[in-house]
């Protein structure tokens, strides 16, 4: 029993409208991944967001929750269409679009966390340093 990867590199394999067979082991593992993404989004929402140290970290967690839930839900819909053997909506190229969308979303979250959050934290520190010398409102 050998596992042949050559069809994965063929455009005719991906650009057909025939849905993949999802009742086999690989299809079931896709379903586990999609459901796992939704479960992970609920766990992050309930555990990590309340324990975030600042609002920027909470925003990053919210973005991750949105990614996991949305792409998990879309993945389950793709799986359903493939399971029902609906030709257009269960096509393999939609899984490629799903992967591309997920990668793009992850890159945008990482870019936000690495570039925009440090800049926003620096601006907050500067603002607090400036407000330290301004008169406060009397109660």
Please characterize this protein's 3D structure.
There is one protein chain. This protein has 139 residues and is mainly α. The chain has one domain (15-131). The chain has helices at 11-14, 25-48, 55-83, 92-131. Helix 2 packs antiparallel against helix 3 (55-83) and helix 3 (55-83) packs antiparallel against helix 4. The longest helix is centred in the C-terminal third of the chain and has 40 residues, at 92-131. The protein is elongated, with a radius of gyration of 22 Å. 12% of the residues are buried. Keywords: Membrane, Transmembrane, Transmembrane helix. The chain crosses the membrane at residues 20-44, 64-83, 95-113.
- Measured by DSSP, the beta-strand proportion falls in under 5%
- Structurally, how many domains make up the residues? 1
Structural class: mainly alpha
> Which regions are unreliable across 5 or more consecutive residues at pLDDT < 50?
none
Instruction: Bin the helical content.
Output: 55-70%
Please report the number of helical segments. Answer: 4
Order of helices and strands: HHHH
Largest sheet: none
How many strands appear in the DSSP assignment? 0
Taking the alpha carbons of the first and last residues, their distance comes to: 79 Å
Name the shape in a single word.
elongated
The pLDDT mean sits at: 87
Output the radius of gyration.
22 Å
Transmembrane segments: 20-44, 64-83, 95-113
Keywords: Membrane, Transmembrane, Transmembrane helix
């Amino acid at each position: 029993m050998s596992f042949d990867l050559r069809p994965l590199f063929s455009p005719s394999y991906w650009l057909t409208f025939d849905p993949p067979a999802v009742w086999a082991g690989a299809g079931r593992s896709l379903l586990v991944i999609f459901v796992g993404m939704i479960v992970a989004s609920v766990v992050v929402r309930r555990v990590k967001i309340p324990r975030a140290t600042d609002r920027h970290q909470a925003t990053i967690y919210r973005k991750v929750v949105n990614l996991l839930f949305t792409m998990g839900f879309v993945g389950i819909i793709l799986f359903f269409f493939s399971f029902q053997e609906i030709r257009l909506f269960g096509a393999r190229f939609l899984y490629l679009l799903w992967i591309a969308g997920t990668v793009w979303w992850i890159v945008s979250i990482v870019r936000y966390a690495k570039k925009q959050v440090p800049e926003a934290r620096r601006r907050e520190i500067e603002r607090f340093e400036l407000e330290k010398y301004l008169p406060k409102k009397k109660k």
